[in-house]
Amino acid sequence: MEKKVVVAVVCVAAVTGAVAAASVVKRKMKRDRRWAKAMEMVKEMQEKCGTPIGKLKQVADAMVVEMHAGLASEGGSKLKMLISYVDNLPSGDEKGLFYALDLGGTNFRVLRVQLGGKDGGLVNQEFTEVSIPPNLMIGTSDALFDYIAAELAKFIAQEGQEFELPPGKQRELGFTFSFPVMQTSIASGTLVRWTKGFSIDDAVGQDVVAELTRAMKRQGLDMRVSALVNDTVGTLAGGKYSYKDVVAAVILGTGSNAAYVEHAQAIPKWHGDLPKSGEMVINMEWGNFRSSHLPLTEYDHAMDNESLNPGEQIFEKLISGMYLGEIVRRVLLKMAEEAAFFGDIVPPKLKIPFILRTPDLSAMHHDTSSDLIVVDKKLKDILEVSNASLQTRKVVVELCNIVATRGSRLAAAGILGILKKIGRDTVKDMDEQKTVIAMDGGLFEHYSEYSKCLENTLNELLGEEVSKTISIEHANDGSGLGAALLAASHSLYL
Questions:
Q1: What are the phi and psi torsion angles at 464 (to 5°)?
Q2: Which of 141, 178, 408, 451 does the annotation list as catalytic?
Q3: What is the pLDDT of residues 435-476, one digit of tens each?
Q4: Is 225 helix (H, G, I), strand (E, B) or coil?
Q5: Rounded to two decimals, what is the model's pTM?
Q6: 109 assigned to active site
Q7: Known catalytic membership, residue 231
Q8: In whole angstroms, what is the distance from residue 57 CA to residue 78 CA?
Q9: What is d(CA 234, CA 246) in angstroms, rounded to the nearest whole number?
Q10: φ, ψ at 248 (rounded to 5°)
Q11: Of 71, 147, 202, 421, which one is least surrounded by beta carbons within 10 A?
């Protein structure tokens, strides 16, 4: 009898063990299936984001076609190709005291610079930054510009002896105004609409320079606005002051734009007298470029459809800092939902749009530690994922790489488009030709994997011989200093 009991116990143990083993095998198979599904999604993303050289050249050619169309007529292209009325870029000979006002968001900056002429360069520079009270962002035009003019007057009152203005000479100001404006001359332009949280109805359709000038008069300020510019044109001017061979400027930050120097006779929509210099700076507004050759994924389409401006700024949504982190978040969310990438429960934080910012992406992409400790910390701190395996972390880095690589390579294709349009994509005279692109923006400055990839791609597209004649230079704080320099190059006293 005892033997039977023992046999029965042994049998039960064997069955239980077999069931447990089968359960383990089942769980492992389930995990493997999920992992295979996740890897399939990553592979598909990589293929859809592919930017082989042939495709990039098609993008550059499409950019050139759109540039021609935008220069031919207003509304002729998705690229606005705005005439900036800047026909004299700084030469380095500028001399004297000049001011700049840089208004581009909830803060504005006021700068003063002392220029020393041909050999003196930038002698002295000072600036202050001022926050705009929220009530003034939705008040009246007079209230906003009176506040700005009062702060400008305070700053001017602190002028030291080293900043000398000859007697009888009026102070001159460059005004960087980074909102949509229809420019009508170098020192006038009407506000098309507000962005960035501003909503001042009585300013729309008004000349912003006239509004500022009236406010300065009310403050008793004897000052003239010599140049109204947008931040990309300012960056071009700032770059030109430091590097005489600058032909274009690109901003790669939260948003993206480009400006370049065009031959005045190559602008069919220009109806005035040709400028003496024979040149005109064009503000491309290239963020709005689109083409069938752009490698768009389901995630890009979904992000665009849910954005505040569906169908607009497609190029910007692929290449700029505002969007790169959001694209990665959308891919990770789908992997979490369809392939349990972070386990059985989808992390609730992963469902929050724009929770993953591009600086986070950059930090993870640049993580060189063997156990990817930075990635681990970011996943914990931002998405509250605390048990991601090393294998999972490696996939996150791979997704950062896929999205950033696509963005940087497309930005390089855009630059190639500009170089093609102005005939700098070939070498005419090896000894003479030098071409400089001025670059600014946090994405370019701080995301080194992005900027390295951009430069390598441009070299690949141009070939060794032409690449030697092209350089990309960081033009830091172009929008402020550039405005002061443009006030100098368009001075009444030249």
A1: -60, -45
A2: 178
A3: 999 999 999 999 999 999 999 999 999 999 999 999 999 987
A4: strand
A5: 0.89
A6: yes
A7: yes
A8: 19
A9: 13
A10: -155, 160
A11: 202
Mean pLDDT of the chain: 90
Torsion angle, CA of 77/78/79/82, rounded to 10 degrees? 80
Residue type for position 332? L
Among 207, 231, 367, 425, the one annotated catalytic: 231
Laid out side by side, the sheet with 171-177 consists of: 122-131, 107-116, 95-103, 171-177, 223-229
pLDDT of residue 29: 78
Indicate which residue of 84, 109, 376, 406 is catalytic.
Answer: 109
Question: Is 321 in contact with 254 (CB distance < 8 Å)?
Answer: yes
Residue 207 DSSP code = B
For 25-61, the pLDDT digits (tens) are 677 777 889 999 999 999 999 999 999 999 999 999 9
Number of alpha helices (DSSP H) and beta strands (DSSP E) in the chain: 16, 13
The edge-to-edge listing of strands for the beta sheet with 435-440 is 82-83, 279-283, 256-263, 246-252, 435-440, 470-474
* Residue 431, CA atoms < 13 Å, CB-side half-sphere: 0
